């Protein structure tokens, strides 16, 4: 009965939101959502779903729990340095108007990190920088651009001084960076992607998906890159046999679309 209850919940969520929970690792997802359901006092997933459709705050909490909005600026700093010092200069030698996408951007730390680097290279105003996520709540936080001191602990000091305004324990993103990013809602699994990107950043998201969903996404990302474009993934998301997606390893956690 419990399995039937969860399967019906998955179906109802898909019909209501187009989010297909069956594409996520079931044990991980079910455990996380069971904790939330019980905390809120619902005996079944179906009753929990019914409540979600009537209570916007509960629905956003469900999305937040499902998408694990945990992010930091300059996460794995040495990888961002490779992007800044190696790949962006390569791209800019060919084209000064870069097209970049932060996929599953959560609360905005990664697209703002991208924006900082592009601003330092004096190309942010000419760049097309897209940031997408499935969670309206996360996107709202990203657009607000207000962060805790914990989120900024890896930001280089010169960037911290230049692109943030500190107010007690919070840090406010500069208007220059906000203007440089277009935030948009998107379901990675079901929506079509734009094309001809120089760079796609999608980090620490794939670990929540099934192998079938990962395969689908890597192919969609590869199709969205221009020849020679770069896909930047998370530290636990090495792509085995990248050649099946017309990709090749360019550096640790960086993949280049074959030209």
TrEMBL record:
Catalysed reaction, written as an equation: L-glutamyl-[protein] + S-adenosyl-L-methionine = [protein]-L-glutamate 5-O-methyl ester + S-adenosyl-L-homocysteine
Protein's name in the database: protein-glutamate O-methyltransferase
Annotated Gene3D superfamilies: Chemotaxis receptor methyltransferase CheR, N-terminal domain, Vaccinia Virus protein VP39
Species per Swiss-Prot/TrEMBL record: Paenibacillus radicis
CheR-type methyltransferase domain: residues covered: 1-259
E.C. number: 2.1.1.80
UniProt xrefs under Pfam families: CheR, CheR_N
InterPro entries from the UniProt entry: Bact_Chemotaxis_MeTrfase (IPR050903), CheR_C (IPR022642), CheR_MeTrfase (IPR000780), CheR_N (IPR022641), CheR_N_sf (IPR036804), SAM-dependent_MTases_sf (IPR029063)
Domain of life per record: Bacteria
Keyword set, alphabetical order: Methyltransferase, S-adenosyl-L-methionine, Transferase
